[in-house]
Amino acid sequence: MNDSDLPQLSTAQCARYRDDGFVFVPDLVPRRDIDRAQAELDGLCRLTRDEVIMENDGRTVRSIMNPQVFCDLFVRFVRHPAIVGPVRQLLDREIYLFQCLLNMKRPFDGAVWQWHQDFPTYRRDDAMPEPRAVNALVFIDEVREFNGPLMIIPASHKAPAFETVVDDTTTSYPLRAADDAVVARLAGERGIEAPKGGPGSVIFAHTNVVHGSGPNMSPWPRTMASITYNAIDNKHGPSRRPQWVVRYDFEVLEAVVLPI
Question: Which of 67, 174, 219, 233 has the most beta carbons within 10 angstroms of its beta carbon?
Answer without folding.
Answer: 67
